[in-house]
C-alpha cells in the first residue's frame, strides 16, 4: 500500500506489521481534520477542515477545492468496496469526514473515549462522505435525527445503533492491535472473532438518546422538516421534556437550507447503493460551494468557526422560504462547462465478498 517508513511530520503515518498495514492520521493539533495530504491525540478524526475550505473558496473561488471532495468521495467508495477488511479504531472524536474514513469499512471499533457526530447543518453544510448511505440504514428514523441535529453519540450508543461493530475498552487496544497484526487471513469472520476476544457489551446511560427511539421515530418520520418540528412541539405540549426542547432549539438554530437538503438526501439514500449516494452528494457539495442558491457555508463558518459569535444570519432565513424547487436544484448537475459528475471506479461483483456486494 505504501512505504513502511513514515516521517513523524507526515499527515498519514504508515506502518507494516506482519500481515497488517496500519494507517494513523497525524494532525493532532487540528484534531486530525482531513487535509489533501492526509491520528494521533484525542481525536480519531474531527472531519474536514471547514475553515480552511472557506478560506480557499474566498481566495480562489468555489472550484478551488472541488478536487479535494472528488478524491475524498472516491476514497470513501474504495473503502466501502475494498475486498480486504478494514478495521477502524475510533478511540476519540469521529466527526464529519472522519466518519467517511471509517464508517464504510468492515469493522468499526468504539471505546469509552469515542464521540460521534455529523454536525454539518450547524455550519451550512450537509452530512456527506456517504452519510446518506450509512445514516439511512440505522434503525427507524435515527439517521434523520443524527443528520439534522448533529447529535453526539458515545461508544455504547454507536454500538447499539450499528454505527460501531464492536466496543473495546481503550486499555485493551494495544493487545487488540498486536493480535490483529498477527492474523494471516482476510476472512471477516476470523477477524471478527479476534476483535470479540477483547470486546465488551457496554450499558447505555439512563439518559441516552437511544432510549428515545419511540419519540424520534414519531417525529423524524414526518415528511418535511416543518412537520418534524411541529411533531416535536406537540410532544412538548403533552409533557415537559428538556431533551425535546433542546432538539427544537438546535433545529431552529441550524441552516434552513441545510436541513431541507439533508433530509431529502437521507431519504433518497435509503433506496440507493453507496456509489450513487456519493455521486449525488458530490453534486450537492458542488452547489453548496458555488453558493448560487445560498451562501450559508461561508456564513456558518464565520459564525461558528471564525468569529465564533454563534449567531449565523442564514439566507434564506426561514424553512418555508426553502421551497422544493430550491431543494431540487441541489440534486441537479451543476451548469458549468468545467464541472462534471463524480466518476467512480468500476467494481466487478465477481471478485467481491458478499458484504461489499450488498453496498452496491
At a glance:
This protein is of the alpha/beta class and 360 residues long. Helices cover 43% and strands 9% of the residues.
The topology string of helices and strands comes to EEEHHEEHEEHHEHEHHHHHHHHHH
Taking Cα atoms only, what radius of gyration do you get, to the nearest Å? 20 Å
Return the average pLDDT rounded to an integer.
90
Give the strand content: 5-15%
Runs in which pLDDT lies below 50 for 5 or more consecutive residues are 1-6
Distance between termini? 24 Å
| Number of separate helices | 16
The proportion of residues forming helix, as a percent range, comes to 40-55%
Characterise this structure.
The structure is a single chain. By secondary structure, the protein is of the alpha/beta class. It has helices at residues 50-60, 66-80, 97-100, 131-134, 142-149, 155-161, 173-181, 188-196, 213-220, 225-238, 242-253, 256-269, 274-290, 296-306, 324-330, 354-357; strands at 12-17, 20-25, 43-45, 87-90, 93-95, 107-110, 115-117, 153-154, 166-167. The chain has 16 helices and nine strands. The strands form three sheets. Strands 3-5-7-8 form a four-stranded mixed β-sheet. Strands 4-6-9 form a three-stranded parallel β-sheet. Strands 1-2 form a two-stranded antiparallel ribbon. Strand 1 (12-17) and strand 2 (20-25) form a beta hairpin.
